[in-house]
Design brief:
Helix content is 58%, strand content 12%. By secondary structure, the protein is of the alpha/beta class. It folds into 4 domains: 127 residues, Response regulator (Rossmann fold); 139 residues, Reverse transcriptase/Diguanylate cyclase domain (Alpha-Beta Plaits, 2-Layer Sandwich), CATH 3.30.70; 104 residues; 105 residues, Homeodomain-like (Arc Repressor Mutant, subunit A, Orthogonal Bundle), CATH 1.10.10.60. Helix 9 links the parallel strand 9 and strand 10. Helix 11 runs antiparallel to helix 12, helix 12 packs antiparallel against helix 15 and helix 13 packs across helix 15. It is rod-shaped and about 145 Å long.
């Protein structure tokens, strides 16, 4: 970027000559404005902040030296000046030195000398910029180091505490936005974040861990139009932009001093825990909105484990899904602590794998690869992820169990069907049937449904009503006797089942 130069002279032809006789562009400058006196020059300097001002001494309204004196009095000591005059007066030069004017050119202008002076000033400006940048980088590094110590709870020395208090004055309050992002996504995330947060001096991005970044930012305490609101809006925009990332963001409690920024980090970490249960990953969580939501560490692990493993004994996938859904709902309602929930689900997966060990070893197909168990330290796992893993695990396991038991079940189911057809007139129940064939009633019910397409009770009633129709056609028995002969202890129950299937009463059936 070119340096800006302002030209001031009360003679228009002189201004035109200054523009034309010096190759400004090749020397790294651009003429930003022209003025006719010192008063106008002050106004344009306030507006344009030029790097170099070339000014005549003798001008109406306000001369060049008066203008320079006033500019310095306002605290502007970095602006370079070249004085132009037709008088070789040492008194002017001495006064100019007092105001840090190091260049003094006589009229008429020597173009070669003028070009040399401007080139020298350009080199000075470049060197000063480099030194300024180095100083700013060093200052920034010092600030980041001190803030990181405060963030991590390191005891501050007296000197460091004074430095932090001084730095705190650049904002009314300070806060921390923690960002959890995977290490492999960090570089790409960092580039996007730097772009979104560019332009605010009171913002510091500090990497605390491989997967955790702290954005420390200053805020305006009571101003809805302050820079703090803008920072928060930018953080919200950043969160929306990061929707495609595996990244979570949370803001802690505000502090009036950077010396207490560690407390803000702690509260931001508490808020960040809630990302475990939040389905929306592109929102910034706020500690102030979540501090009343307390996590629980107690829940009935034994009952859940027994219920889940029991579904494998019964080969009951529907029951398994019901247990997972119940756990999903109850953990969210009671807000089980993420560490506990993560630990328990991973423990469940290991128990299921142990139970399924023999089947998993036999199966080398692609379905086996779906059953993967995450590490406990994968903090970016959400509860949705873990519930999804349980469902995926269930699909794999029950597919294997059903495949293995299908052949074994074929023979026994035929025996069971034969027994039902022979003994349906008796007080047969699925419990009695299960005891006879040494099976669990739920598992037996599933086998019959898979084989017959209908459940045990439906099959039993179908057989009884079919036999009742045969007996009614003989006209040898009363309706109540028929009901008793086919196995019904209650005539009303018989009547209900008969009418349900034939859409007519037994008497109406006799007449057909």
């Amino acid at each position: 970027m070119a340096f800006k130069v302002l030209l001031i002279d009360d003679e228009p032809w002189a201004l035109e000559g200054l523009q034309l006789c010096i190759p400004w562009e090749s020397l790294g400058f651009e003429v930003c404005a022209l003025c006719g006196n010192g008063a106008e020059g002050l106004e344009r300097m306030e507006e344009l902040k030029p790097d170099l001002v070339m000014v005549d001494i003798h001008m109406p309204v306000m001369d060049g030296l008066e203008m320079i004196e006033e500019w310095r009095r306002r605290g502007n000591w970095s602006t370079k000046f070249i004085i132009l005059t037709g008088y070789s007066d040492f008194g002017y030069a001495r006064k100019a030195l007092k105001f840090r004017v190091s260049r003094y050119l006589l009229k008429p202008l020597d173009e070669e000398q003028a070009e040399s002076e401007v080139r020298a000033i350009g080199q000075e400006l470049i060197k000063e910029q480099e030194q300024l940048y180095i100083g700013q980088v060093a200052q920034r590094e010092q600030e980041i180091l001190a803030i990181k110590e405060a963030l991590t709870g390191t005891a501050l020395s007296t000197e460091a505490a004074r430095f932090m208090e001084s730095l705190s004055r650049s904002a009314d309050v300070w806060n921390v936005c923690l960002v959890q992002v995977s290490g492999e996504d960090y570089s790409r995330w960092n580039s996007i974040a730097a772009e979104f947060l560019h332009g605010w001096n009171a913002i510091y991005m500090i990497r605390l861990r491989n997967d955790l970044v702290s954005i420390v930012f200053g805020d305006a305490a009571h101003s809805s139009q302050g820079s703090g609101e803008s920072v928060r809006k930018r953080l919200e925009a950043l969160a929306r932009h990061l929707a495609g990332f595996r990244a979570f963001m949370a803001i802690g409690a505000a502090e009036s001093s950077l010396t207490r920024i560690g407390h803000s980090r702690i509260t931001a970490e508490e808020a960040l825990l809630h990302a475990f249960y939040e389905a929306e990953r592109n929102e910034v969580l706020e500690y102030d909105a979540l501090k009343e939501h307390v996590f629980q560490r107690h829940y009935d692990q034994v009952e859940l484990l027994d219920r889940m493993l029991g579904t494998f004994h019964l080969i009951d996938h529907a029951a398994y899904r019901a247990v997972v859904d119940h756990m999903n709902q109850s953990f969210r309602q009671t807000r089980v602590h993420p560490d506990e929930a993560r630990k328990f689900v991973i423990y469940l997966l290991h128990e299921i794998r142990a139970y399924m060990g023999e089947q998993m070893e036999k199966d080398s197909g692609p379905s086996n690869r779906l059953f993967e168990i995450p590490n406990l330290d994968e903090v970016l796992l959400t509860f949705d992820d873990l519930i999804g893993m349980l469902h995926s695990c269930g699909r794999v396991c029950f597919e294997l169990l059903l495949k293995e038991n299908a052949a074994e079940a074929q023979g026994i189911v035929q025996d069971i069907n034969d027994y039902i057809h022979t003994h349906f007139r008796e007080g047969l129940t699925i419990k009695l049937l299960a005891e006879r064939f040494f099976l669990h009633p739920a598992y037996l019910g599933q086998l019959l449904i898979r084989k017959n397409g209908i459940g045990f009770n439906e099959l039993l009633h179908n057989l009884r009503i079919e036999e009742a129709c045969r007996l009614l056609q003989t006209n040898l028995y009363k309706n109540s006797e028929v009901a008793e002969r086919v196995g019904y202890a209650s005539y009303n129950h018989f009547l209900k089942q008969f009418e349900k299937r034939l859409e007519m009463s037994p008497n109406e059936y006799k007449k057909t």
